[in-house]
Automatic annotation (TrEMBL):
The keyword Magnesium does not apply. Residues 403-416 have a biased composition (Low complexity). PANTHER family: NADH DEHYDROGENASE SUBUNIT 1 (PTHR11432), NADH-UBIQUINONE OXIDOREDUCTASE CHAIN 1 (PTHR11432:SF3). GO terms for molecular function: NADH dehydrogenase activity; oxidoreductase activity, acting on NAD(P)H, quinone or similar compound as acceptor; quinone binding. This is NADH-quinone oxidoreductase subunit H. Residues 403-463 are annotated as: Disordered. It comes from Streptomyces purpureus. NCBIfam families: PRK06076.1-2 (NF004741), PRK06076.1-4 (NF004743). Its main location: membrane. GO terms for cellular component: plasma membrane. NDH-1 is composed of 14 different subunits. Subunits NuoA, H, J, K, L, M, N constitute the membrane sector of the complex. It comes from the Bacteria. It catalyses: a quinone + NADH + 5 H(+)(in) = a quinol + NAD(+) + 4 H(+)(out). Belongs to the complex I subunit 1 family.
């Protein structure tokens, strides 16, 4: 009965948090102040993240890092921004000028919009700003997380349009890579979100944080957290998934033909997206604005006043350090490995995990005991594993019977389509003709009438 009472209390608190009547009551000037704060928070965090990334990567590679502009190089980001704005703004001749100029704006603006529904503090704990009591959140919606997904999807158009409007091959390939990559990883991201929705019973960000009062969802939904961490790296085009701007393959990617302030806007969109996905991860899985476990136990005021904003910022910075750590540690994966991870690993695992979470929640709502739930779930998992093993066994036997004996593999022609193509898995390139052994070669006589013919008339290899 204690567990059921605890679940009922959580559901009542979530329903209370879904009461969004406290939003929309602020005067217009206070709404403007909060909107400016959200914009300033993103910009300052981006400026700090750029310097921090260069410092941390330099520390990992035993280098000094930026140390000229400002104390300890803290103004390096401002110096980079001034340098980019003073560069010549070139528009290539074959570009579609309207779309070419619009693409960086389309990529940058949606990156700022998602922060509007992220709570920096509890909805019920209002703070005083110039004598007015208000929540530490710009706004909230009953479908706030769907709004975040929709805004993130719009940002893809900026990169795709940038590659298409440049009128060049390499930017187009970079834009297409980005489109395929983001679509692939958004499916698994949506399934990870759905697991949180099922467990919290709401899509409101403030209600999701309220549902983590006792336990953070990183402990209750660890698979969803891991899936989201991988997908958020793929969504932001960061290493090791930075395929759209892989310099070795595409000479810069979708932003090859951009310079000056338009190039800076693409870089700004990338870093703002890093901050946004980190804030979403904190909200969904890391307790949002709540203080960590050791602090919240011995300090009752840790989650009141302005202190929740401190815990939120620290968690966001921890995830930004994770981004930097990945960039300094892992090499870039191949594009086929990226697609295989997205479609053959993340999506199936996220769907199976979503079904498992839905089953557990349904059994909890029917008042089944924890031991019975574990028994049912374990039995279902074992049944699926046995069925898949038997199916694979019979499929392998049929494949061996159907395959003709001693059939030589089909020859691979790398020029079959009129241009060189790499071999597919299971194919191999034809043997490369080698030079004759060294002992069979003969020196060319200086002054011979034919450069490929020796004095005795024998054709030889040039040495």
């Amino acid at each position: 009965m204690t567990a059921l009472t605890h679940v009922a209390e959580i559901q009542r608190s979530v329903l209370a948090a879904e009461d969004l009547s406290m939003f929309g009551r602020d005067p217009w000037w206070l709404v403007l102040i909060k909107a400016v704060f959200c914009f300033a928070f993103l910009m300052v965090t981006v400026l700090f993240s750029i310097v921090w990334e260069r410092k941390v990567v330099a520390w990992m590679q035993l280098r000094i890092g930026p140390n000229r502009h400002g104390p300890w190089g803290l103004l390096q980001s401002l110096a980079d921004g001034v340098k980019l704005m003073l560069k010549e703004d070139v528009i290539v001749k074959r570009a579609d000028k309207v779309v070419y100029v619009l693409a960086p704006i389309v990529a940058a603006i949606p990156a700022f919009m998602a922060i509007a529904v992220i709570p920096f503090g509890p909805a019920g704990n209002e703070v005083s700003i110039f004598g007015h009591r208000t929540t530490m959140q710009l706004t909230d919606l009953p479908i706030a997380m769907l709004y975040v997904l929709a805004v993130a999807s719009v940002g893809i158009y900026g990169i795709v349009l940038a590659g298409w409007s440049s009128g060049s091959t390499y930017p187009l390939l970079g834009g297409l890579r980005s489109c395929a990559q983001m679509i692939s990883y958004e499916i698994a991201m949506g399934a990870a979100f759905a697991s949180v929705f099922l467990y919290s019973g709401s899509m409101s960000t403030s209600a999701i944080v309220e549902a983590q009062q006792e336990r953070w969802f990183i402990l209750l939904l660890p698979v969803s957290f891991i899936i989201y961490i991988v997908t958020m790296v793929g969504e932001t085009n960061r290493a090791p998934f930075d395929m759209p701007e892989s310099e070795g393959d595409l000479v810069g990617g979708f932003n090859t033909e951009y310079s000056s302030i338009k190039f800076a806007m693409f870089m700004l969109a990338e870093y703002v997206n890093m901050v946004t996905v980190s804030a979403v991860s904190v909200t969904l899985f890391l307790g949002g604005w709540r203080a960590p476990y050791p602090v919240s136990t011995f300090w009752e005021g840790a989650n009141h006043g302005w202190w929740p904003m401190l815990w939120f910022v620290l968690k966001v910075q921890l995830l930004l350090f994770f981004f930097i750590w990945l960039r300094g540690t892992l090499p870039r994966v191949r594009y086929d490995q990226l697609m295989k991870l997205g479609w053959k690993v993340l999506i199936p695992v996220s769907l199976v995990w979503l079904m498992l979470v839905a089953t557990v929640r349904a059994l909890r709502n029917e008042n089944y005991a924890f031991q019975e739930i574990v028994l049912y779930v374990a039995g279902a998992v074992l049944t699926v594993l046995v069925i898949s093993f038997v199916a694979d066994l019979f499929r392998d036997k049929k494949a061996k019977k159907a395959a003709p004996a001693d059939t030589p593999p089909a020859a691979f022609d790398p020029m079959a389509g009129g241009f060189p193509v790499p071999p597919l898995p299971g194919q191999s390139l034809p043997p490369v003709p080698r030079r004759r052994p060294r002992h069979q070669r003969e020196l060319i006589v200086s002054g011979a009438p034919d450069a490929a013919t020796a004095s005795d008339g024998k054709e030889t290899d040039g040495v």
